[in-house]
Amino acid sequence: MIKQVVVFSFADATPPERRRQVLDGLNRFPAWFPQIKSWSLGRNVSRRDDRYQYGFVAEFESMDALNEYLAHPQHESFVSEQFRPAIAHRSIVTLSGDV
Hints:
The protein is α+β, with helices and mostly antiparallel strands. The protein has a single domain (2-95), classed as Alpha-Beta Plaits, CATH 3.30.70.100. Helix content is 39%, strand content 31%. A four-stranded antiparallel beta sheet has the order 2-3-1-4. The two termini are 13 Å apart.
């Protein structure tokens, strides 16, 4: 099982309506991409580290499934046209479960 963990903060200039559009779009990912086996999106409520406002975790059966999702034209379009323009900072980690 492969997990992709993405944490991010919106740019200060991103208006609330635009933020809502991005979050709503992210929540449609499981319907758009059958490669996603499990999905969770939420606001960061940590008292220890508030560098990022939101995060999501997507789970995939394999690296091939993750790569297929990442290369999908709809994913590429959403990330380049919707996500990146609204985001100030992000960090992405891919976990394999092997330790």
